Amino acid sequence: MDYLSQGVTQALALLLHMDAATLSAITATLVSTAYAMTAAMLLGLPCVASAAGGIPDMLQSGVQGMLYGAAGDDAALSAAILQVLALPDHGTALGTAAQIRARVTHDAAKNTAQMIEIYRKVLQREGTL
């Protein structure tokens, strides 16, 4: 099996596991963007995440998920998970709001158009376009 096939197989397995999950816990200590959290949000899972790196820019705590503070704070992580699990309707609402935000933020056509425009401006500025 080549690396591409192996990667696709692993990604599909992860999505199948995530699809059966009640919530997604993101315990990152340092991250610019959490790909697992993006996948969970796109699937409509409520996310409980550390406030590390770029994660706070990805969701508003209490609206699209729960930020529990510093990574490594196991008590705060446990409390946030229990809070989401104790109120299933609220967890569903968090997941729905997360999915809406993720679909807007990670719109492939929109992001591609923005990247093309950025490159066009750079090339114009450099005089190569």
Notes on the protein architecture:
There is one protein chain. With 129 residues, the chain is mostly helical. The protein contains six helices and three strands; from the N terminus they run αβαβαβααα. The protein is elongated, with a radius of gyration of 17 Å. The N and C termini lie far apart (41 Å).
**First-last Cα distance:** 41 Å
Please describe the biggest sheet, giving its number of strands, its sense, and whether it closes into a barrel: 3 strands, parallel
Low-confidence stretches: none
How many individual helices? 6
Please state the CA-atom Rg, rounded to the nearest Å: 17 Å
Number of strands: 3
Average the pLDDT over all residues and give the rounded result.
85
How would you sum up this structure in a few lines?
The protein has helices at 3-19, 35-42, 55-58, 74-86, 88-105, 108-126; strands at residues 24-26, 47-49, 65-67. The chain is mostly helical.
Protein traits:
mainly alpha, 3 strands, 61% helix
Describe the secondary-structure layout:
Blueprint: H1 3-19, E1 24-26, H2 35-42, E2 47-49, H3 55-58, E3 65-67, H4 74-86, H5 88-105, H6 108-126
Parallel strand pairs: 1-2, 2-3
